[in-house]
Write a structure and sequence with these properties.
This protein is an alpha+beta fold. The protein has ten helices and twelve strands. It folds into two domains: about 190 residues, Ribosomal Protein S5, domain 2; about 160 residues, Alpha-Beta Plaits (2-Layer Sandwich). The strands form two sheets. Strands 1, 2, 3, 4, 5, 6, 7 and 12 form an eight-stranded mixed β-sheet that branches. A four-stranded antiparallel β-sheet has the order 9-10-8-11.
């Protein structure tokens, strides 16, 4: 008989520039990295999908072809099945699958989004659906499964970064636009502070206060939005805002400017590695002083990386814990060692490809 096997992998990501921009429809620059989620599966004669997740010591099993009730908060594996089922996409047979990964969990490197991207790709391939060959389709379906289905405040950065891979900028809005860059980037050191973070709480707080700031300014400047070029009238209105709204709006607009400079940098024929490092550190200044989502340990890790010769360093992801990364084209091993001496878990990483899907048919007599 014929046994169909599928292997899918999807990468984690670094948010290079543009923290807390995507859910406002503002541009970001991100890079996929060579820490990945792997899903391997083999088709069975049963009408169930059986999942083993040894990294977190869990198992799951559910029937093929039925809308699945959620048994836990943010039940992403089942939500992906439901999203596809509503689109009449479902495997005709059962599958036995195993999920493994090297991405730090709940640390700002998009482990959950990489899982959902890989799982969507797996289910599409298992169903024989042509969307399995479209990373953008996979990214959209993963966003629906992870964010829209649970009415979370996040954006699409993680899903597009993981699905498309390499270095990309994403311009959000009614017509989403993705630019892919040839990556001139060398090694990074990614370091997990081992401080857990509250992603949805952080996102929700920043989003609500920035949108309140926009609403207050619109009372006097009706056509104002976050994409508006700053002029003296807008600057004057910003200064009138309550303290929290003013601080967070200023941080959001400063990040928008830093991200635009970063995109111009990637478009240059000769890439300026030192300027890139400077932009990373400027972004971290905004994160620490305006968004205020750093922490003493994170700050110490970043200072240590810079003192050890990194060209730039910043927090990675939603903040208040999780990971930092340092740009270390020449001295990654030294920076990694110094960060581990602080009690962090360090990884030397580089830019990697997006989702990959392999199918292997083995014939047995």
């Amino acid at each position: 008989m014929e046994k169909k096997k599928i292997l899918v992998s999807a990468p984690g990501r670094l948010c290079l520039l543009g923290e807390h921009q995507d859910y406002f429809g503002l541009p970001i620059i991100a890079a996929a990295i060579n820490l990945r989620i792997y899903i391997t599966g083999i088709r069975t004669d049963e009408k169930h999908i059986k999942l083993a997740l040894p990294d977190i010591g869990e198992k799951d099993e559910f029937p093929v072809g039925k809308e699945l009730p959620y048994s836990q908060e943010r039940d992403y594996l089942k939500s992906a099945v439901n999203i596809l089922l509503r689109k009449k996409i479902l495997p005709e047979s059962g599958w036995k699958a195993r999920v493994r990964g090297s991405i730090p969990i709940n640390s700002g490197t998009a482990s959950s989004s990489a899982l959902v991207v890989a799982w969507i790709g797996f289910l599409l391939k298992a169903s024989g659906d042509t969307r399995a060959s479209s990373p953008k389709e996979i990214a959209e379906l993963a966003f629906q499964s992870e964010v829209a289905e649970f009415k979370e405040p996040g954006g699409k950065m993680d899903h597009y970064s993981s699905a498309l891979g390499r270095v990309i900028s994403i311009h959000f809005g009614k017509n989403l636009r993705v630019n892919s860059f040839k990556s001139p980037l060398k090694n990074f050191v990614l370091a997990d502070s081992l401080i857990r973070k509250n992603t949805t709480g952080t996102l929700g707080f920043i989003k609500s206060h920035v949108l309140k700031a926009v609403s207050l300014i619109k009372n006097n400047i009706s056509d104002f939005n976050l994409k508006s070029p700053l002029n003296s009238d807008i600057k004057e209105e910003i200064e009138k805002l309550p303290a929290t709204e003013k601080r967070l709006l200023k941080g959001t607009l400063m990040t928008k400017d830093i991200t635009a400079q970063g995109e111009n940098l990637f478009k240059q024929k000769k890439f300026d590695h030192e300027k890139f490092g400077t932009l990373l550190s400027r972004q971290q200044d905004v994160i620490r002083n305006y968004l205020q989502i750093s922490s003493p340990k994170i700050d110490k890790m970043i200072d240590t990386a810079l003192d050890s010769g990194a060209l730039g360093a910043k927090i990675n992801g939603s903040g208040e814990g999780g990971c930092i990364f340092a740009y270390t084209p020449n001295n990654a091993e030294l920076v990694a060692k110094k960060l581990e001496n602080l009690g962090a878990k360090a990884y030397i990483v580089h830019v990697d490809k997006g989702i990959t899907i392999h199918e292997n048919n083995e014939h047995h007599s």
